[in-house]
Write a structure and sequence with these properties.
The chain has 251 residues and is of the alpha/beta class. The protein has helices at 2-11, 27-34, 58-67, 87-98, 143-150, 159-165, 185-200, 202-211, 214-219; strands at residues 17-22, 49-53, 74-79, 103-109, 116-117, 123-125, 133-135, 139-142, 171-174, 237-242. It has a domain at 2-100 and 139-146 and 177-214 and 221-250: Alpha-Beta Complex (Spore Coat Polysaccharide Biosynthesis Protein SpsA, Chain A), CATH 3.90.550. It binds ligand LQXTBERG. It comes from Nocardia caishijiensis. Keywords: Nucleotidyltransferase, Transferase.
Length: 251
């Protein structure tokens, strides 16, 4: 999953450096796994991949990743668990940063009705589904903004949550069903099916899967969608890829 996630970031053409954050005991294995990953198309320079040690919480790991790329102009924070994220989605997030957005996240409409509950499990409310979005990665940020967010002691389940607490506006772009988080055994079965189908019919596998979610996803997009993968201006952009260190990931 880490390898696929890093390959996707590089294939987007939008990154200059990838920092992979892993538990200490997996540094050697990750380094070996990724040693031949700094590959790009014929006309592009290779993208270096650095492996660094993370921390106990998501925020500790992202903080370590930021420290490993101190000169970046932009950061894309990505989950290795979203290993099948299409490079076009990564490029879409990067393009919005390039266009001047300080914080950009991929979003999909929510298909289930969502309820809040109290500690006893009793329903306390039903938020309007039309106003909800499921948020994916990579999440893109102006580097100074993300560094400021990480200079605080705030906690959140995603990086955009930290940036929101600073009062910054976070913009959404259309997410992609293929950027789903591979967390449960069922997710893994789906991921394997996607990869098998890609091997058997590379051209139409992704297209048909993407089209299943695209019209609704497009309606969630509050910004212009660009499908090109231009490099970001003004110095390095860095990718922080979370390690697949979740205990619930199926082995
Ligand atoms: C960042 C994220 O993928 C957005 O949906 C999600 O919050 C990550 O959660 P995790 O518990 O760290 O996997």
């Amino acid at each position: 999953m880490v390898r696929l996630a890093v390959d996707g970031l590089i294939a987007s053409g939008a990154v200059h450096l990838v920092v992979v954050v892993v538990p200490a005991e997996l540094v050697d294995a990750a380094s070996a796994l990724l040693s031949s990953t700094s590959l790009t198309g014929d006309s592009m320079p290779p993208v270096p991949v650095r492996v660094v040690v993370g921390g106990a919480e998501r925020t500790d790991s992202v903080r370590a990743g930021i420290a490993a790329a101190p000169d970046a102009g932009y950061y894309l924070v990505h989950d290795a668990a979203r290993a099948l994220t299409p490079p076009t989605l990564i490029a879409r997030v990067a393009a919005e940063l390039q266009a001047g957005r300080p914080a950009v996240v991929p979003a999909l409409p929510v298909v289930d009705t969502v309820k809040s509950v109290d500690a006893a499990g009793a329903v306390t409310g039903t938020p309007d589904r039309a106003l909800l979005r499921a948020i994916q990665t990579p999440q893109g940020f102006d580097a100074d903004l993300l560094r400021r967010a990480y200079a605080t002691d705030l906690a959140a389940t995603d990086d955009a949550g930290l940036v929101e607490r600073l009062g910054a506006t976070v913009h959404t772009v259309a997410g992609d069903p293929l950027a789903f988080k591979i967390t449960t055994p069922l997710d893994l079965t789906l991921a394997e099916a996607v990869l098998a189908r890609r091997r058997d019919a590379p051209a139409d596998a992704t297209a048909s899967l993407e089209s299943a979610g695209t019209p609704e996803a497009a309606s969630a997009d509050t910004t212009t969608q660009l499908a090109t993968a231009d490099s970001l201006p003004g110095g390095d952009s860095a990718q922080l890829s979370r390690s697949a260190d979740r205990s619930e990931v199926a082995k």
